[in-house]
TrEMBL record:
Annotated Pfam families: YkuD
Record's GO cellular component terms: extracellular region
UniProt record similarity statement: Belongs to the YkuD family.
Lineage: Bacteria, Pseudomonadati, Pseudomonadota, Alphaproteobacteria, Hyphomicrobiales
Signal sequence region: 1-17
PROSITE patterns membership: LD_TPASE, PROKAR_LIPOPROTEIN
One annotated GO molecular function: peptidoglycan L,D-transpeptidase activity
Domain of life: Bacteria
Species for this entry: Pseudorhizobium flavum
Keywords carried by this UniProt record: Cell shape, Cell wall biogenesis/degradation, Glycosyltransferase, Hydrolase, Lipoprotein, Peptidoglycan synthesis, Signal, Transferase
Active-site residues per Swiss-Prot or TrEMBL entry: H176 (proton donor/acceptor), C192 (nucleophile)
Protein name from the UniProt record: Lipoprotein-anchoring transpeptidase ErfK/SrfK
Length: 229
């Protein structure tokens, strides 16, 4: 027959209590945000592409930068692309005061395009060639790529690109995809507008060649129409 002393009971109680608690400190516990099923589906892997398009890791994207239909009162006609670099949004203007809003990453300070342009042409899985200015700034990084990079999952333009021209001349400014989800909502690229790959595929199929593009910078606050979700 087992005998319990007062000392053995005092030792056992803390051990039993410890079995009912977690050993993980609240400060080290990682809690992933709850992502609605519609966005999980929207940003899932894309089938039927020339190269794999993986699902986007939505835990690395701020929720406000996910694609959605919003109220957008503007005098721009439907079909116009409006890029608000300061707010980090691209709007595709639709009928009845609405727009499709996409989160974007934009160019570093001093490298952004501003004004009006047109989508001269579009490309699926485009080649990428660094500009002469990029090669001059970072020859070790971009010099070996002067002849261009073949399409594929490592190509910085991603699965789609829209090429912007102004007055018949190439601005060297592109709207394109990215696999770096964490860059959406930030100023990180060398001047171009980047969208999540699923978003650029969606935008690509909605806009024809010749579509008008208006790029707003911070100084254009008076011409910016602030949307309401």
């Amino acid at each position: 027959m087992l005998k319990f002393t007062r000392r053995s009971l005092l030792i056992a109680v803390p051990l039993l209590a410890a079995g009912c608690t977690t050993t993980t400190s609240p400060r080290t516990r990682t809690v992933k945000p709850l992502i609605p099923d519609e966005y999980v589906a929207m940003y899932g892997a894309v089938d039927g592409e020339a190269f794999p398009v993986a699902a986007t890791d939505l835990t690395r994207v701020e929720p406000q930068f996910l694609r959605r239909d919003v109220a957008y009162p503007t005098d721009q006609p439907p079909g116009t692309i409006v890029v608000d670099t300061e707010a980090r949004y691209l709007y595709l203007v639709r009928e009845n005061g609405r727009a499709l809003r996409y989160g974007i990453g934009v160019g570093k300070a001093g490298l952004e395009f501003e004004g009006e342009a047109v989508v001269q042409y579009k490309r699926q899985w485009p080649r990428w060639t660094p500009t002469q200015a990029m090669i001059a700034r970072e020859p070790e990084r971009y010099g070996p790529l002067a002849a261009g990079m073949e399409p594929g999952v490592m190509n910085p333009l991603g699965p789609r690109a829209l090429y912007l021209f102004k007055d018949g001349k190439d601005t060297l400014y592109r709207i394109h995809g990215t696999t770096e989800a964490w860059t959406i909502g930030k100023a990180v690229s060398s001047g171009c507008i980047r969208l999540l790959n699923q978003d650029i595929i969606d935008l690509y199929r909605r806009v024809p060649n010749g579509s008008r593009v208006v790029v707003l910078q911070g100084g254009n606050a008076n011409s910016r129409q602030l949307p309401q979700v």
